[in-house]
Amino acid sequence: MGDLDVTKLKTKNDHANYIHHLLNDIEALDLMIDTGKIEIAPIRIGAEQEFCLVNDQFLPVNKSLELLEAINDNHFTTEISNYNLEINLDPLELRDDCFSKLHKQLDMLLKEAKDVASKKGVKFVLTGILPSLSVKDASEENMTPVKRYSVLNDAIKKYRNQNFDIHIKGVDELNLLHDSVMLEGCNTSFQMHLQMHPKNFVDNYNWAQAIAGPVLSACTNSPLLFGKELWSETRIALFTQSVDTRVNSYMLNEKQSRVSFGNSWQTGTISDIFKNNISRFRSFLTTNFSKNSVDMVNNNDTPKLRALRLHNGTVYPWNRVCYGTTNGKPNLRIENRYIPSGPTTTDEVANMVFWVGVMMGKPKRYNNIHEKWDFKDVKTNFFNAARYGMSCQFYWNGTYISSHDLILNELIPMAYKGLYRVGVTPKDAEYYLKVIKDRAQAQNGSEWMARGYRQLLNKHKRYEAMQILTAKIYEKQELGFPVSTWERLPERINISFKDGGIVKHIMSSDIFSVDKKSSLALVLHIMKWKNIHHMPVINSSRELIGLITWTDVETYLGNSRQQQCSVGKIMKTDILTTTEYTRVSEAKKIMKDNNIGCLPVINQSKLVGLITLNDFES
């Protein structure tokens, strides 16, 4: 819906007018399909490149509109987050050296933008989720100030009428209540488009669903969110929850999220796919309508189907059916939305070659796959891939097989056949599919990132490790070599953000705390067991209400009777605190001026960390 001027549906007349045009668009689509007006050939490919804007500290920077104006190229457009931009690549015919041409245009456009961005102190990072993101970056103040984003945010919030409850469990666990759709902006992808013949469109769409898990497993690149190690492709879980219009009780008629893999195979006609989404998901936006789509088809004009495209733009299946026009001719395509951005443009184009090759190389034995395979096996494959990447196994054609074996022994050979079948040059096919083969035999982006982050955490605090990891991704991305060749990171890297840094760089977030009703005996033992000298006291809402120091309790050692008193009787309540984003130098001065050895870190009264004098020396 990027090119549409949208507003919220408010009045009864708004709804009636919108529904009239929506139903009219469906009728026009059916008419174009029935009369053979949908373009059959040539087959085209296309792509959208989303990427992150960071500063010299490798933190997100809100300069999308400023850069967009300076770049002054219609290939570039905004995203919902002010620290993201998108490139829309030109569609190309699927033949000859189309993929290397697409790659060349992508690199050229990125270089064009980098030359402008460097003058403004901005760097670009291609990655599914930027490792250095913090929760505050997902706030509404970082939304791109473009009308359609605020309208979408307001409409979804009103429709949902409660905060978004984000829960993702992987190696670590993330629990978060959030008040806007801005978590969507944490996700950046490399969206791929493949135009398909209308005659076999539904069967090919089902095939796209069937291969989604294995293809994703080779391409995962987003294991981290807010410093937590979660899924191999955390975007799948995050995006699903970040624009979910269902309330937590699931009492609405919608049993399926707007971001979804689907619940069943598609059957019937192409327009049935659109009709299913219209039936399942309510509309909450509208735009300006000037022409009747059916009348346009009858007059041999090509309609834009504005109402249908608008509705389609608020429903986000991982494989989405899209209607569009090229050179004035209508076409239908499958949009692959599950592949992450990065880590290099070579990796991204290789992902595209792999997907398109497998799509076009489908053997006849997989025709009408909806009659042969259980959809739940395919859906399970997809979410296993998102969780575990290339370490998972798939239920494929009636048997279990590892991701590596399926990719190397069946899908890559299938992709070669598909590419050669449509006339892609052997040079393109061999170069890019070798990138996938090497990745399957070595590592993909999420494996490199997760192992590197674990190494960094051995010697660096979490926030600094997040920045260092982002810096190394940028450094290696600029060299351009595929991620399969990237060397693992050492524990200690001589990149420091502490000079002039913030409290978040040095604070400890894995802290022990107690309730005011806890016995002093328990506190004494915890402090001795863990060799700690400061114990925050919090309430049930994790708000800081007091502090116990070793100096406060050491006089109670050896006196078991006195140790039975509660923490609340001896804790200090007049406590100096700081925030995560206070400068380190300022926090150090507070501690020195007040002769204290500990400074609790709070966010909206809640305890999030602790710094001691030792943290300034590490």
List keywords for this structure.
618 residues, alpha+beta, 8-stranded antiparallel β-sheet, two-stranded antiparallel sheet, 19 helices, 22 strands, globular
Compile the SSE list and pairings.
Elements: E1 7-8, H1 12-34, E2 44-54, H2 64-71, E3 76-78, E4 84-88, E5 92-93, H3 98-118, E6 123-125, H4 147-160, E7 164-169, E8 173-178, E9 190-195, H5 201-219, E10 224-225, E11 228-229, H6 234-242, E12 259-260, H7 270-280, E13 285-286, H8 293-298, H9 306-312, E14 316-317, E15 319-326, E16 329-336, H10 345-360, H11 375-388, E17 393-396, E18 399-402, H12 403-421, H13 426-441, H14 445-457, H15 462-479, H16 503-506, H17 520-530, E19 534-538, E20 544-549, H18 550-553, H19 584-593, E21 598-603, E22 606-612
What does this structure look like?
The chain is of the alpha+beta class. The chain is built from 19 helices and 22 strands. The strands form eight sheets. Strands 2, 3, 4, 5, 6, 9, 15 and 16 form an eight-stranded antiparallel beta sheet that branches. Strands 1-13 form a two-stranded antiparallel ribbon. A hairpin with a 2-residue loop joins strand 17 and strand 18 (399-402).
